[in-house]
Amino acid sequence: MRAxxxxxxxxxxxxxxxxxxxxxxxxPLSERVQAALDEMRVGExxxxxxxxxxxxxxxxxxxxxxxxxxxxxxxxxxxxxxxEAEPEHPRDRRPGxxxxxxxxxxxxxxFVHVESEDGRYRISHAPGPDRHLVDYxxxxxxxxxxxxxxxxxxxxxxxIRLEIVPSADTLAALSxxxxxxxxxxxxxxxxxxxxxxxxxxxxxLRGYPWMDTISxxxxxxxxxxxxxxxxxxWLQEGLAKFLERRWREPxxxxxxxxxxxxxxxxxxENDSLLAFDRIHPSIALLPSQEQAALAFAQxxxxxxxxxxxxxxxxxxxxxxxxxxxxxxxxxMATQAARRFAELESEWRRSLEHTxxxxxxxQRELRRGQASEMEPIPEALSEEARRRVRLGDLLxxxxxxxxxxxxxxxxxxxxxxxxxxxxxxxxxxxxxxQAQLARDTLIPISERHPDHASTWALLSRAYDLAxxxxxxxxxxxxALSLNPFDPMPHCxxxxxxxxxxxxxxxxxxxxxxxxx
Length: 515
Hints:
This protein is mainly alpha-helical. The protein folds into three domains: 8-107, Tetratricopeptide repeat domain (Serine Threonine Protein Phosphatase 5, Tetratricopeptide repeat, Alpha Horseshoe), CATH 1.25.40; 112-350, Neutral Protease Domain 2 (Neutral Protease, domain 2); 382-513, Serine Threonine Protein Phosphatase 5, Tetratricopeptide repeat (Alpha Horseshoe). 57% of the residues lie in helices and 5% in strands. It is built from 23 helices and five strands. It has helices at 28-38, 42-49, 56-69, 72-85, 94-107, 134-152, 168-175, 179-185, 210-226, 233-243, 258-269, 289-310, 312-323, 328-336, 340-350, 382-396, 400-411, 418-430, 434-447, 452-464, 468-479, 486-495, 499-513, and strands at residues 112-115, 121-125, 160-165, 189-192, 195-199. Strands 1-2-3-5-4 form a five-stranded mixed β-sheet. Helix 20 packs parallel to helix 22 (486-495).
């Protein structure tokens, strides 16, 4: 297993050790199939595997080919047959692989499978609410596919497989990633075994940028194919973060949240930047979400500067040299006609100091039933907490103006807190105070651009004020973070430009409002 998955050391390696730990070695054909898988030449591996026999070695290799194709039952069957043909040996990896294949088969047994009309994109998801994600995900996949073809000069053969998993537990079952790793670093998606795996936004308390995350993992998939899976983690993640929003913009450009910029600025000032190799073997293994954010900020700003200074063609050429086996640092330096140490020094000098950065909003797994109210911030004083509790009581009695007054008093103590601002804006919207809601939320949207409730409520506030264009923009931004909130669907059901979209969104508005 190589470096392009965030959780590679937690998963089962397909190539780090011999297929069997006995004196047997790979046959020439099975060795060619395994090498093709290792280098992401999956189509070639599938064709070659047709000639494999029924030896334990051939069966184990065939099982891996099935797994890369998404044929989980056949993967389990072939690996079980391999172990029956020759029992396990010390340091034999087949039992661990079989455990992964079985857990994947079990976790996805009842998944619903949807395929695009041309068969290029295949989406699998748990039955139930996640069906609402499919149409959006297909649009994202198409746009990402086109944008990455333009940026990296390669179009994958396909089919492109996306599995939308309902929870962190399911993601763990599909990857052997631990749920604790998800909570510690906020890792909620990965790309491995020729597929994309993304957690449903309903699994997180505040949702997350799930559409950009699909794009992020798609970048990993393309780079892995382009470079035969030889790109180191730091460069993989830098490329993925830099290009993750290219699908919805006319050109590649870096986007960091204010909190990520602040974390990077503090590390620069305190001389605590991470060595790029520290990111190996996985961002998922870093000690905190802050460290993960720092890692992403570092590698993405490095890639962004390289792209902007030396150009897209230079970056592409470096990736092709990596595919040919050259070290990534040497390849980038050679193509830029600079020493890598100079590239790194120039990047460090380009970093800017950021003042008054907001704290990082932690990704929190949802526990229990969804609620329209976020938890009260722990740092609030008892008096502010009392105001919030009173506001919640008044809200429950539909005394919206009085609730808004109490929330406003609490917000004076923590003016940048998105949970308090959302409470105030929700009450203001319910009381037809669109201007108050907008004045409250616009600063939050700038400081915490990935806070889903902010955008949903902004869409309603703009709608109430008759600002149709901004209402559409805010509603679509809200759906890119949490499409299970009915509010942005309801706004688009009335305000979308096309009749078909209005009809579709009205249907989602009605269904989700009944939940």
